[in-house]
Design a protein that fits this description.
about 375 residues, mainly alpha, two-stranded antiparallel sheet, 14 helices, 4 strands, about 55% helix, monooxygenase, oxidoreductase activity, acting on paired donors, with incorporation or reduction of molecular oxygen, iron ion binding, transmembrane
Length: about 375
């Protein structure tokens, strides 16, 4: 009995000591977790305050007027996620534009003022390009290229627009008309010769049509030059992910979009090299742009030898008025290919939808085309249009 009593007296302090050690360990772990969470919340709070303070102090110092109501959102991402989740939602728009229809926000890596008032928009348009000028989100600028006509502004924009306009003159469009007709007929025929119930997604079908049409008319790319569809796939991916968070990190959508753009640029360079040679069997808008390509300038080296300096790989302006460097040519080829793809696809899809919902209008349209002998014509001439 005495031995058992002594053993019990020894075990009780050991149990008490073990329990105290476990309690201290749990308390230490809990303290560490709470301290980490507190530091994280404090850092997020301070970063958010400094983020908003920075943009509040970036306004025009000559104006005493306050910024419109709204929020710049979270650091770095701003309100991009909220915009993507409900940018076209009626309730979202109503909340973001209280009363005056003007709100500040930060989306796609850029602080901006969103305007949803006809009167305010009319005032802004009337002041362009003197008081205001066009700007695009960072992701769009990177995908278009810094020398694209949609990115540059002022005199550079006017000069570039003048050059590009030559590619869409009536003479050039008449040259491209056979290519356009062949592409449209090929796609429409494939729509009516499908399997099963001949059902398809209208917008995707129209998008593929516009994609093929742009590639063939801009750079002369037919199915033969892209048998596996890699260029068309990269083209569509760039177009679908043009508006994204501009974080160039492996795995992000922006990084994938830039890689897809590089595929399009590499292919455009091949088409430029082919167009500059005498062996080509197509007509494209690229032909017009090549007439404005700046010629290499000759410089004299120290030993008296002449050396050609090329503009390839340089983003500098061409020294000759009305001319383009190779970088400017590449960026504007990509811009022409990407700009307006979705809007044209949407317009075509809406046209198909409306014709399907109004068979009487479709019948009237067929009757009008038949009266002009255009319904069964294998080829429509430019003079007829």
């Amino acid at each position: 009995m005495e031995t058992l009593f002594q053993s019990t007296l020894i075990q009780q302090p050991l149990k008490l000591l073990t329990w105290w050690s476990i309690a201290m360990t749990e308390a230490s772990l809990l303290t560490t977790v709470l301290a980490t969470v507190a530091c994280g919340l404090l850092t997020l709070f301070l970063t958010t305050v400094l983020w908003r303070w920075h943009f509040e102090n970036c306004r025009d110092p000559s104006s005493s007027l306050p910024l419109p109501p709204g929020s710049f959102g979270w650091p770095v991402i701003g309100e991009t996620l909220r915009f993507l989740r409900g940018g076209n939602n009626t309730d979202y728009i109503r909340k973001r534009f209280p009363g005056c229809g003007i709100s500040k926000t930060h989306i796609f890596g850029m602080p901006m003022i969103r305007v949803n008032s006809d009167k305010a928009i009319a005032q802004l348009v009337g002041k362009e390009p003197h008081a205001v000028f066009q700007s695009l989100p960072t992701s769009v600028k990177q995908i278009f290229g810094e020398n694209g006509v949609s990115v540059i502004s002022g005199k550079d924009h006017a000069s570039m627009k003048k050059i590009l306009r030559e590619g869409f003159s009536p003479v050039r469009l008449s040259d491209l008309l056979p290519t356009v007709q062949a592409c449209v007929r090929r796609h429409v025929t494939s729509w009516t010769q499908g399997t099963g119930e001949n059902k398809m997604l209208g917008f995707k079908a129209c998008q593929h049509l516009v994609c093929d049409l742009i590639l063939e008319t801009v750079v002369g790319c037919t199915r033969d030059q892209d048998p596996d569809g890699a260029i068309r796939e990269a083209f569509v991916f760039c177009n679908d992910n043009m508006f994204c968070v501009p974080v160039d990190f492996p795995g992000t959508t922006f990084h994938k979009a830039l890689r897809a753009r590089q595929k399009v640029v590499d292919f455009a360079r091949k088409r430029i090299a082919a167009a500059m040679s005498s062996e080509k069997d197509y007509v494209s808008i690229l032909d017009v742009l090549l007439t404005h390509l700046a010629k290499p300038t000759e410089t004299v080296t120290g030993d008296g030898a002449e050396e050609n300096s090329t503009t390839e790989g340089s983003a500098e302006k061409a020294s000759q008025p009305g001319s383009l460097t190779k970088v400017q040519l590449e960026d504007n080829v990509v811009t022409i290919m990407l700009a307006g793809t979705d809007t044209v696809s949407s317009a075509l899809c809406n046209t198909l939808d409306l014709l399907g919902k109004h068979p009487d209008k479709l019948a009237a349209l067929r009757e009008e085309l038949a009266s002009q002998d255009l319904l069964d014509s294998s080829f429509i001439y430019w003079c007829t249009l």
